[in-house]
Amino acid sequence: IKSTIFKVIVETEKLVEVSFSRPWDPSLKGKFVPLNIDKRFILLRGCSGFYTYAIYEHMGSQEWQAFSLGETRVAFKLTKDKFRYMAVGDDRRRYMPLPDDRQSDRGQPLAYPEAVLLVNPVEPEFKGEVDDKYQYTCENRNLKVHGWISNDPSIGFWQITPSDEFRTGGPLKQNLCSHVGPTCLAVFVGAHYAGDDLVPKFGQGEPWKKVFGPVFIYLNSVFDGQDPLSLWDDAKR
């Protein structure tokens, strides 16, 4: 979503909140979903990270066409040569293949595009594995912290979600989180594992407004000589 308006919402010695918004009007019909979208970012002094959330609004005017919201999310794409270790849970954390391994000269697509057999990966240790982002989905109730670790430098990039109340589907709904890319997602609305029944639908001129988030992006690090994998334990605290 490319924003067209930038605004400082709050600016104090301890906090800055900024807005990147994209208003909708009838001239954009057929080009963009009929929503006013306001993306917010909050920085706190002394805090190792930032908060982000979004405000979506569909106005109660007949000029605002009907639509459905099949998926919306925040996505972070990290540097593939740095962030190689992924963690979505104590029992699901490991070094990951490169996105290059999914290309046609290194991987063999299987029954659906997301599943790829790694036949000639950059690193031979991954040969014979199947990479599939759906292997790493997580129920909303357990989707509290996930992310990636870089060994050089030793930095962690984590997404922390204090509450899943803003997500569709309830606590047992599965959602994507982190997967090869390296990609780190905060899914607000998604039809995966549920289908069209969970897709919000709005009529022409139907008023609707919702806040998605916040989620916290936490960055941590360790000194040279310390174990980078300890960053996962720190992120869970």
From TrEMBL:
CDD domains: RGL4_N
InterPro entries for this protein: Gal_mutarotase_sf_dom (IPR011013), GH-type_carb-bd (IPR014718), Polysacch_Lyase_4 (IPR051850), Rhamnogal_lyase (IPR010325)
Single GO MF descriptor: carbohydrate binding
GO terms (BP aspect): carbohydrate metabolic process
Name of protein: Uncharacterized protein
Organism in which the protein naturally occurs: Ambrosia artemisiifolia
